[in-house]
Amino acid sequence: MKITLLCILIGYVCGMFLTAYFVAKIWTGKDISEIGTGNPGMANVMARIGKVPGLIVLAGDILKTVLAMGLCRLLFSAEIGSAAGLFAGFGALLGHNFPVWRKFKGGKGVAVTCAWIILYMPFGGIVSSVAGGIITIFTGLLPLGAVLITIFEIPFAFLEKGWAAGVVMTLSFLIMLYRNFPGFIRGFKNQESREFKRARSIKNTVGCILIILAVVLCFWFDYSMIQTRQQTYFEPRVQQEDISEYTRVTSMKELSDEDLEVLFQQTGLGRAGVESLVRLHKMYLMKSIQQHFYTTPTIEVFSLQKVRHLERVSDDHGQKTVFVVEDGDIIVTLSSYCGNWRYGHAGLVVDSNNGEVLEALTYGEPSCLQPLGHWTEYPAYVILRPKNLTKEERAEVASYAKENLVDINYALLSNKKQSTIKKTHCALVVWQAYQHAGLDLDGDGGYFVTPYDIITDDDLEIVMEYGMDLR
Q1: What is the rounded CA–CA span in Å between residue 50 and residue 53?
Q2: Co-location of 82 and 200 in the same domain
Q3: Is residue 272 part of a domain?
């Protein structure tokens, strides 16, 4: 509680610097309260003094918010994490709107609020700010746009950051409504000056409705992406049981569908995986696979180029992995993400005996052969196999891929429609290998193919899964 109050206090002190007051004094020699609406904000300065001083006010209001949030995150992020920025930004809003040195008569806090929410929750903040800004342009009413920005930000805050952020954003809405309510009412009575000179029209009304629908769509997208992102590692659904009796199985005829379901729940092995072990006379590995399946890994997140993130196992858990793979099997993980989009990674087993996997890793690196062992570093993965191809046919696909799909340049936007195989990426190189055999391994059949599209393709069956729940 003390750190929270200290963050709010630091934000309040920074927020009390009313850039508009000082800009007005320098440009006109007058107090900002004597100019136009008297509001110490960008809109009033830009409309009554000029664009350049107005932009300076905007920059100053953004910078003081950045200063408050940056300082508090530097000092207190170890104790309260991103909440330091939340409370610092809220304090900056309070300081801007209610500065003690002006007898609590400050600005309306639109620029401060936009800077705060964009820094604190980029996706929701940008959507809310842009939507509010466009509605302001359509209607010419800044109070309406200002209030809508804070309304839009509330559900994003609850979704992305939790109840504490949602409550704080709700308070910011109440503050914004209080500071803009008189102008809000005057606007609907057609008495408020329209800074952007837009008259009411059916087109503008429809435009506003479409913007609100777009915000709802963005919220749905954010919700679906966060749900995906939260699915980092799934623990087994059922309690661990003794499966010793299955280690002595020598033929698939000894296993019923109920037995196969038990093995799947206890080891993550699908029918195809069990068949491989039976064929290789390695059912004795069942206990080791089960032990690994029920051991929860310690997960560490690494940042790649600051915007992409990769989850890795940080203990020796991965070293105990037993892979059940054959040539032509596909390995997919969703352990990498950008923002709230869990895009994942895929590879094709081209030599199971020597543990070689064909992968297209990242920009600037052509497709290449990687050791199967590095997949043990992922906290969740699934091994898939085409249902309707024989072992020999899958081996032919693997051989074709090894001979023709190595050293292909990486391009994220490469797609299924390109006429030649000059570019690829991790999911596409798998698709390209099996497309040569007449299979379209793409769950949604679209223009692009992603690791998730491969996972959802009906032509594939689970060989083995760990830390994922695909049923």
Answers
A1: 6
A2: yes
A3: no
Please report, as a single letter, which amino acid is at residue 222. Answer: D
**Domain end marker among 215, 230, 245:** 230
Q: pLDDT for 228-277, tens place per residue?
A: 555 567 888 899 999 999 999 999 999 999 999 999 999 999 999 999 99
Please give the structure tokens belonging to residue 358: 């064909």
Number of domains in the chain: 2
Cβ atoms < 10 Å from Cβ of 395:
17
Nearest Cα residue to 435 out of 454, 452, 463, 461: 454
Q: Which range marks the domain in which residue 209 is found?
A: 2-230
Classify strands 423-424 and 409-410 as parallel, antiparallel or unpaired: parallel
DSSP SS3 for 357 = strand
Closest CA to 396 of 364, 437, 457, 347: 437
Q: Give 445-452 contacts, CB < 8 A, sequence gap 24+.
A: 447/415, 447/416, 447/417, 448/413, 448/415, 448/416, 449/415, 449/416, 450/343, 450/344, 451/332, 451/333, 451/334, 451/343, 451/344, 451/345, 451/346, 451/426, 451/427, 452/334, 452/342, 452/343, 452/344
Number of residues that this document lists for the chain: 471
* This prediction's pTM: 0.58
Task: Kindly state the DSSP code that residue 248 receives in the 8-state scheme.
Answer: G
CATH code assigned at 372: 3.90.1720.10
Q: Please, what is the angle between helix 286-293 and helix 257-267, to 10°?
A: 50
